[in-house]
Amino acid sequence: MEKRVVVTGIGLVTPLGIGVEETWSALVAGKSGVGEITRFDATGYNTRIAAEVKGFNPEDFMPKKDAKRTEHFIAYSIAASRMALEDARLTIDAANGPRIGVLTGCGLGGLNMLEITARTVDTAGPKRVSPFFIPMLIGNMAAGMISIQFGAKGPNASVATACAAGAHAIGDAFDLIRYGKADAMITGGVESVVTRTCIAGFGAMKALSTRNDDPRKASRPFDKDRDGFVVGEGSGILILESLEHALERGAHIYAEMAGYGMSGDGYHMTSPPPDGEGAARCMQAAIDDAGIQPTQIDYINAHGTSTPLNDLYETRAIKMMFGDQAHKVPISSTKSMTGHLLGGAGGIETVFTALVIQHGILPPTINLDNPGEECDLDYVPHTARKKEVTYAMTNSFGFGGTNASLILKKFTQ
């Protein structure tokens, strides 16, 4: 018999703030986390803006010795995990550690460290390479270090499905608990690649916004003047537990995990199919898994990247999936404020979806001044909206045609 799974703790490190309260307040206020790049000198780049995490001090979350040898993406995930565990009031010890696991999503890992080390090899030779280079590079080290820091000795893995990684990680963690392989999971997504090669690479693909003169207006999902996404960074972590485990502890429950869908487009390495068929199948799989009807979805947190093709094709996918209901369900892209966290997007957006259910407030899609062609759905433009939500869906789609949809519901016993 499948176990029910609930969200009992959340942690956030985002371009909008450090912690859930700061981030959520900025999100519902419609604030943008986008600004000029400070991580490197972006002079000469077509894109000179990003959504960077501001004011983060890793020593607030780990010993100084560890902080010095921890790459940004690992530090963000440890910080968000510590917040989530504290929020859940979940103590991990020798007795329960083997039944509590970690599953994170990350797209590119320590790309910054790769760039630094490549320059070191070229200028100073291989003997000057740090022994911490590989541990600071590999994407699964976020899950590994969370496990080490907190003593979680259950299932431990990392997902690397590009921009769907965080959502896939949460969905896989959901499955591990409901099928009895863990009692609780620390799960979510992380990314930190505001780096030279990342900005140059996505820039070469013409995927990034070049609205350098007005950064806060650069991420504009579903708007006719959208010209690409904005790279963001950070981490969103959730504590998932079996309902039985949570009730035994007297834990606060934000929401219940209801459904998980996956699909592959089988179409193109970077472009979704024009009709959105792969994304529609993914959403249908999540709805079927939840055992509900499309009419029961009260809110969708869209993938909504602010690229010309994604926003159009995701809109078509929603119309294909929901039919007449598509024009009735409110949809928002929180990437309009956080930028696109790539492998970390599904992590923060699932946290946002849980908070929507908890607070009954829908975050807006900012910068949506003039909807683009065929983008005629209710994208909650400009201003947050109060609405009671029973079932909510969040979508994440990645390069390679990999798709993930999660459904959360209001918890009732």
TrEMBL record:
TM annotation in the entry: none
Keywords: Acyltransferase, Fatty acid biosynthesis, Fatty acid metabolism, Lipid biosynthesis, Lipid metabolism, Transferase
Active-site annotation: 163 (for beta-ketoacyl synthase activity)
Record pathway: Lipid metabolism; fatty acid biosynthesis
Ketosynthase family 3 (KS3) domain: residues covered: 2-410
Cross-referenced Pfam families: ketoacyl-synt, Ketoacyl-synt_C
GO terms, molecular function: 3-oxoacyl-[acyl-carrier-protein] synthase activity
GO BP of this protein: fatty acid biosynthetic process
InterPro entries cross-referenced by the UniProt entry: 3-oxoacyl-ACP_synth-2, Beta-ketoacyl_synthase, Ketoacyl_synth_AS, Ketoacyl_synth_C, Ketoacyl_synth_N, PKS_Beta-ketoAc_synthase_dom, Thiolase-like
The reaction(s) this protein catalyses: (9Z)-hexadecenoyl-[ACP] + malonyl-[ACP] + H(+) = 3-oxo-(11Z)-octadecenoyl-[ACP] + holo-[ACP] + CO2; a fatty acyl-[ACP] + malonyl-[ACP] + H(+) = a 3-oxoacyl-[ACP] + holo-[ACP] + CO2
The protein's Enzyme Commission number: 2.3.1.179
Cellular component aspect of the GO annotation: cytosol
Domain of life: Bacteria
Classification via CDD domains: KAS_I_II
Family indicated by similarity: Belongs to the thiolase-like superfamily. Beta-ketoacyl-ACP synthases family.
Role of this protein: Involved in the type II fatty acid elongation cycle. Catalyzes the elongation of a wide range of acyl-ACP by the addition of two carbons from malonyl-ACP to an acyl acceptor. Can efficiently catalyze the conversion of palmitoleoyl-ACP (cis-hexadec-9-enoyl-ACP) to cis-vaccenoyl-ACP (cis-octadec-11-enoyl-ACP), an essential step in the thermal regulation of fatty acid composition.
UniProt name for this protein: 3-oxoacyl-[acyl-carrier-protein] synthase 2
Organism encoding this protein: Desulfatitalea alkaliphila
